[in-house]
Amino acid sequence: MEEGQFDLRFDRGRNFFEFYLLSPGAHWTFLLFNPDGSLVGIGSMQRSMRDIKGREVPVAYLLDLRISGKSQLTAMKQWRDFFKKMVNSLSSLREDQRCEIAVTAVFLTNVKAQNALVKKSRGPAYIPLKDYWNVQMLAGSPWGRFSKPEGFTVERNEQGFTGEIIEFITKWDLSFAASEYAKLEATMGPNPLAGFVARNSAGEIVGFVRPWINRSSRTPVVKIKTTFLKILARLAKIKSNVPFSLLHHSLFIIRPDVSAELKKKIARELLKESFKEAHNEEYTVSILTTTDSEIAKAVSAPYTISNTQECMLYQVLIGDQKPLLLNNENVFFEGALS
Fold it and tell me: For residue 338, what pLDDT is reported?
């Protein structure tokens, strides 16, 4: 990712596939070779259950597509033919691998990926489903640290998915099917961080965040761009071009029936508490994905160094398959083609 105040790349360490094991569903990786046997491309696919219009749907998410400029025309033709057959065969796989639809995400600022995939005339059609924002936060500012909740309270949640939390998630979050939550928690493994719950004056839950630090499968490496930002980073004891930990917010939910202004305040406080707790152990790159542009602006504002990038979720269509129509479903995935 090379837009914004800092460049962000991910080191997958010694085991490239460990990242895929964090998701509860099946995954596949495909390699592209030139006729001389040299590796010139890679692409992966993950399967998970998503709640779409009240129905659990097996969805294939296409990610980690990387093609070298050294790939030859014959290899590229074979790749395009294979890609069509692969997507077209998803619905006929065995039951635990079958997928009804295929989706992928692409940063709107990634001109190369947009031209190569979305805007090309040949190959599968890429149908826009929903735009969303990927927020990457690096350093907190003093005014962000000392803000206080108004009209709600924020409390630690160290018990994980209690009955009250599950009821809240099931009612207000549609990014995963309900059956996936236990699997998601199990694949995350031991979590050193507490979750945080926001409650209104009546004691009702109005917001929830479940942060999780990934120390091994994908390590972010940050390169801060300008001299001014480098000075700010130095004051915060943040080093450039060194590995960080990645602070995920896999579950970040705010009740949609609260006011827009209160949503922004709840979002800021939940992220602030999550970020503070993670920094008790080590500095992190904190990442949040949201379909609400105002929340994206609100949570990034208190951070001295941050990036906010607009992404688009696409359905990948083959043959006579019909486009999926989304309303309020949050079916975005953790990554995007960068």
Answer: 35
